[in-house]
Structure formats: C-alpha cells, structure tokens
Design goal:
Distance between the termini: 63 Å
Strand content: 25-35%
Structural class: alpha+beta
Largest sheet: 6 strands, mixed
C-alpha cells in the first residue's frame, strides 16, 4: 500500500498546487513507455476487477500486464475482458493485496504527469516515419490555450522554437530547422491542466446491439480509434511524379512518406473527355515504369494523375497532366483540346518550326478563313481577333499590328502550311512541345479534370470484359457446380476503388459461367448513405438472376471516404447468411475487403460478433465463403479463419484489378 499511497500523494500535490483539474476522470501515470493503472485492493472474495483507465484499450492496440503487490503475474493467471473493461483473476487475491496493471503507451493514449512542477496531461502522438512534421493531437479534452506546452521525441525535450502548437486545430508542427522524427520514434506531447476547458463528448454505446422493437433506430457511432495522420499535400506539391519515357512507357515515382500503413496510391488515367480509362495501384516510395502498350491504351490523348487515399476519407491528388499516346511517332503529331488531329498533308518541321495545314488548324481553333489567291493572302478571324499572313512573308499582322515570324506560311505539296505556334498563340491558345512522342499540344482553355471519387467510376460498357491477368471470379465460378444463391459482401471504403471496378468489369463473365438457376445479390457496407433500422451502414440489393440488373446495382457503388460507423464485415457476412437462410439452393458468399474486420473482442462498439461466432454461423447454415482479401497482415489472420471454416478459398486482393501488372 505504501507505493500506491506515495503516487496518490504526488498526484494530489500536483493537482492542488500545480494546476486546476478540469477533467472529470483520473488518468493513469507514466512509467517509462508504459502507463500504470491501479485496481481495487483484494478483499479475499472478489475475482473480477474493473479497469477504468480513461484510455480505450483493445487487444490490438496494447498488452496488459497485471501485478499483485508489485509482482507481475503470469498471463495464464488472469483473463482480460476488453468488452466489459474488466480483469478476472483465476485465483482470488488475498484481502489487502495491492492490484495494479501496466500497459504500453499507444498513439492517442493520455496520462497525468508533473512537468517542470506543473500538473500536465501527456498525450502520445503517432509514431515518426522519417518524413512527417505535422501531428494531430486526438485528445479527449478541449483546450483554451497554446501556451506552456512541451514536446519530447525519444525522451529528448525540444526547445520552444523547434515546434508550434495550435490549440484550435490541435496540431503540433515541427519547425523547418528540426529534422523529422525517425521511423517508430516515440513522440510525447504535454499541455498544462490549466488549459483544459472541457471534454469532447463521447457517443460510445454501452450496448451495441440494436433493439428488436418496431421503432428501433440505432444511432451510428463514429470511430474514435487512432488512425494514420494524413498530411499528403495536393496539387503541385504532391510527393510524386509521372513522366513519359522512351519506348512507349511512363515512369511513376513517389517519395518514402507514401509507404505509410493505410495509404493506397494509384495512377489514374482518363481520356480526353475526362472519363476513367485505367486505375493502377503503385507502390509508395519507389519508381516503377509501365508499358503503354501493355495497358492497352489506344492512340489518343490522356490525362494522368496520382491519387493517394485512405479508407477514412483522406485523399490527395497531383495536378492532372495531359500526355499524347502515339506508338508510331515518325511523323509529328498535333493535339488540340486533347483531340488528336488528322491531316491529309502531315505536319512538317521547317527549321525548328512546325507547320500544319492552314484550314485544319484554323477550323480546329474555331476561326473562319478567307483566301485571296491574287495576293496569296490568308485572313483568319475569331471573335475580335484577326490574323493576316502572306505566303512566303516573314511578317504577319494581328489586328493590324505587324509580328515577325520565325517561319513563313508556304505551299508544301500543294497545301498551304502555316506555323502552328504562331497561329495558336495569336488566337489566345497555349502551345507545348512533347519531345518523347514528337507532338505539339495546344489548349485554348485550361482543361478542368475532375478528381473526385464520383468522376472515377468505371464507365459501364455492355459486353466488355477485363483483359487483365487476374481471373479471380472465373476461378470461383469453376468451383460452383450447382445452382446457387450468391451474395457479394463488398467493403466500399476509399481504398477499394480498383477492386470494385474489377468486380464490375468481370461480373458478366462470372454470371454466365455459373450454373443456370443461380441468383445473385450485393451487400455493400461502410461509407454509404443508406440507412437501415438494424444495419445503418449497410445496403442490400435484392437477389436477381438478371445480369444487367446486377451490373446496374454494381454501377452505383462508389469507393469513398468517411469514418467507420456502427458496422463491420462480420455484420455484413451475418446479414448475408440471414438473407439466404430460407434458400434451398447451395449458398455462397464472396467477401471482398482490403482491411481487418471489426470484431467483438477488439471493437465491441462496432460489432456484435466474433470470428468464432461467424464461423459457426457459416458452418451451421452450410454457407461457403470465398474471400478476395490481403494474403498477409492482420486482415489475413482474421479472414483466413472464416474461409477455412467454410471450405472456401482466399484470393489475393492485389491480383484484383482491371489490369494487374506483375
């Protein structure tokens, strides 16, 4: 008891004389990189002890060590119930026994500590990655001041000039002269308790199960778990580039910061009309070269840009760049407003100046042309601009003002040829030369290419099929040898765009390949707007055996961002099982996700089910579950249990793209 009393006396001293305790709860105190929490003393009869730490502890974010009279117990001597915030001792502790627990500090955990004689609250920021300089303080408290704060990186205190804290946005930013924290650096931030003005309201439900009453309307609970800080800049500062390279290839390069867990980066390719053509996942922190021919892009003009997304809605994009794709570039090409121009007389290079047919360029630029054969004079008018050229003359006139030409208009093979740069710029256009493809690019108006999730939907093309090397659905169809009810349970978070597109593009062949009499349904979960009384973040499309209906339902799914609500992949699977419960056909679920599922043990407020319970449900209802999911990491460890328990197959989600490049 003496050790505990000393700690309590120290904390009480700091609270009484070092600051004002604005928080309504007592936080744990720090011991190195661990936090210590005291349980009730043993009374000789009690086995279950409450652990109200103030931090949200789960089996996945920390490990709990239990002590009796300062001696650590073997983990087999107790059971931690994260759902109910309790610890059950397998042997009743003696009366008066001092019980405590210790757990490792994780991002967003907070504690009480005296810093320089001031009662302070410590807060663990996300770990360093070698690049990030701005960190989010996801505190439970609201603050009224940015003063008297402290920052420690790997135990070293920073000078006040080396960082800046904004209490309104709750962000800590390192100064430019300070090197970014290295990978896995521990970063602890402190603010005085006197700056606490209140607490952030918690919406956590004590019972996540929806009511079975007729008017039950459960309220979704926002995710309060720490997520990867997303600080990727958009626009010209985006940390990546795309460049055309020789031999009909292009190279994509991204910086090391793009390797963060939870980030997915893509090359987005759109045609001249701004419609999505290809989406390719790229590895962060490296350079990769891709063949334009292998992409299957026809010759034409395309917009390329990089986009990084997280499942929580963060995204950043580079500025879309226009690139001409020309496989036979012996002759000079011309693109105007993104459209490739076709001329009977090809463009020519005259002393470093590109000449093009007169009528073709003026008509493409929306000008009217008059030809005076007696003087061999060309007059072009568009709006208030008039351009006059004479064959063989090095002087032209724009609205009556003379302009010196680097190349005169001239007759070549009976065709009047004019300098494209001069003509385009005289009429208000912007001209660029793309040397790799030997192409002149002209824009009169700055192109506006949308980069939203809605703009990146794969166009529905009746009869089209993916030509890539990833026939996952074809493999699944070969395993189905009788008429079946099949439900696609699809995660639609922001990082799932290419996989959803893969399903859209290959669904027709799949439907045609399974036995006649089969029915299909789609269940989408996570970031959608559909609300259901019992499944507020899920949408179920009814069974159909019509291919076009199924494709129409799929076309409405858009991978987008947003925090996780009260839902889970396990909820989705169970809902699919229930939808098939009365079926006399064979039953199959195709589960598609790129992230771990919420489980009752680790995310009690987001799932009513455990993996074991769902596995039992699949077996008892004779449902086979195939999965398109990661083949490594936390998601794999969870999902493989469901697959194996139902005699299904797990397919690598990295192979699920409209075009997968090895």
């Amino acid at each position: 008891m003496k050790g505990r009393m000393m700690v309590f006396l120290l904390i009480s001293f700091l609270l009484l004389f070092g600051g004002t305790a604005s928080a309504s709860e007592r936080l744990d105190h720090r011991q190195g990189d661990y936090l210590v929490h005291y349980l009730e003393d043993g009374d000789g009869t009690k086995q279950i002890f409450s652990m109200e730490t103030g931090n949200r502890l789960t089996a996945s974010n920390t490990k709990i060590h239990v002590f009796i009279n300062a001696q650590e117990l073997d983990s087999s001597a107790y059971t931690v119930d994260y759902d109910n915030h309790t610890i059950m001792m397998h042997k009743v502790p003696d009366s008066g026994a001092e019980l405590s627990m210790k757990y490792a500090i994780a991002p967003a955990f907070e504690w009480e500590e005296g810093v320089s004689g001031t009662a302070s609250i410590g807060h663990a920021l996300s770990a360093g990655d070698g690049n990030s300089r701005t960190f989010k303080v996801t505190s439970r408290y609201t603050l009224n001041s940015s003063k008297n704060v402290s920052l420690y990186i790997d135990g070293n205190k920073l000078r006040a000039s080396e960082f800046k804290f904004d209490h309104k946005t709750l962000t800590v930013t390192l100064s430019e002269k300070r090197k970014a924290p290295g990978k896995q650096s521990k970063i602890y931030f402190y603010f005085p308790k006197t700056s606490v003005s209140g607490t952030v309201q918690s919406n956590e439900e004590t019972d996540p199960k929806p009511s079975t009453g007729s008017d039950a309307t459960p309220t979704p609970e926002p995710d309060t778990e720490a997520v990867v800080e997303f600080n990727v800049p958009s626009g010209e500062n985006f940390p990546g580039t795309i460049a055309l390279t020789p031999n009909y290839t292009f190279t994509v390069s991204t910086t090391a910061e793009m390797r963060k867990s939870g980030f997915s980066t893509y090359v987005i390719i759109k045609n001249a009309s701004g419609e999505l053509v290809k989406r390719i996942r790229v590895d962060g922190g490296r350079s990769s070269t891709y063949s334009l021919r292998k992409l299957g892009l026809p010759e034409g003009g395309y917009y390329f840009y990089l986009k990084t997304v997280t499942q929580y809605g963060g995204y950043a994009v580079s500025i879309p760049q226009f690139y001409p794709v020309r496989y036979e570039a012996q002759q000079i090409g011309v693109f105007i407003e993104g459209k490739q121009q076709e001329y009977t007389q090809p463009p020519v290079n005259w002393k470093g100046n590109v000449l093009v047919p007169l009528r073709g360029i003026f008509e493409a630029l929306g000008a009217t042309v008059k030809w005076e054969p007696s003087t061999q004079t060309i007059t072009a008018t568009r709006g208030s601009t008039t351009v006059v050229l004479t064959i063989g003359s090095s002087t032209a006139y724009v609205n009556g003002k003379p302009v010196k030409l680097h190349a005169p208009a001239q007759l070549i093979n009976g065709t009047t040829m004019v300098p494209i740069r001069f003509i385009s710029e005289a009429l208000g256009g912007v001209v660029a030369w793309e040397g790799t493809s030997r192409t002149v690019i002209v824009f009169q108006h700055e192109p506006k290419i949308e980069t939203s999730a809605e703009s990146e939907r794969t166009p529905s093309k009746e009869g089209s099929e993916a030509s890539g090397s990833s026939p996952i659905l074809q493999h699944i169809s070969k395993e189905i040898n009788e008429a079946s009810d099949i439900v696609f349970v699809i995660d639609v978070t922001g990082s799932m765009a290419e996989v959803i597109d893969y399903v859209k593009e290959t669904i027709s062949h799949f439907v045609d390949s399974v036995p006649a009499g089969s029915n299909f349904a789609i269940l989408a979960y996570r970031d959608i707007n559909y609300k259901d009384a019992y499944y507020p973040a899920m949408e179920f499309f009814n069974f159909t055996n019509q291919k076009n209906v199924l494709k129409s339902q799929l076309s409405g799914l858009v991978a987008t961002g947003g925090m996780d609500w009260y839902e889970s992949g396990l909820e989705g699977i169970q809902m699919a099982v229930e939808k098939m419960s009365d079926s006399k056909k064979a039953k199959r679920i195709i589960f598609i996700t790129d992230s771990p599922v919420h489980e009752k043990g680790s995310s009690p407020s987001k799932s009513r089910y455990s993996l074991k319970e769902i596995s039992e449900s699949l077996k008892s209802n004779k449902v086979t579950l195939d999965a398109i999911a990661p083949k490594e990491g936390p998601a794999y460890k969870q999902i493989i249990q469901l697959v194996e328990s139902s005699n299904g197959t797990l397919y690598d989600i990295n192979e699920a793209s409209v075009l997968h490049i090895k």
